[in-house]
Specification:
The protein has 122 residues and is an all-alpha fold. It folds into two domains: 49 residues, no CATH class; 73 residues, Up-down Bundle (AhpD-like). The chain is 81% helix and 0% strand. The relative contact order is 0.12.
């Protein structure tokens, strides 16, 4: 699963992101990097049941609802590779407002605007 996980992780997050994560790894967090590459990317994200777009949408909803803003930003950047559109992201945030709360959605809008502006500038 490790090879499949790394391939999927690179396809979703991009080589530059994965290379930075690996380069920044040390003996303390290397087992964590192995875990997420194998479990998240190899076992979950690599399943063929849902396309990457759907996984991206679900992941963003969960991360927004839980307030994991750095991860939200990372997965917003990944939408360029997963096929989730900005309209999809807006719909995610509307769902978050109703099911997880307006404050979470309000912050998600700010994070999305900032990330999309950064992406547009590149």
């Amino acid at each position: 699963m490790r090879n499949t996980g790394e391939e999927t992780r690179r396809r979703v997050l991009g080589d530059a992101h994965v290379d930075r994560a690996i380069a920044g790894s040390d003996p303390f967090d290397a087992p964590f990097q192995d875990l997420i590459t194998d479990a998240a990317w190899g076992h979950v994200w690599s399943r063929e049941t849902w396309p990457l777009r759907d996984r991206s949408i679900v992941t963003l909803a969960i991360l927004c609802a839980q307030g994991h803003w750095d991860e939200v930003a990372m997965h917003l950047r990944a939408t360029a590779r997963t096929g989730a559109t900005r309209e999809d992201v807006r719909e995610v945030i509307l769902h978050v407002a109703i099911y997880a709360g307006v404050p979470a959605a309000n912050k998600a809008i700010k994070v999305a605007r900032d990330v999309f502006a950064e992406m547009d500038a590149q």
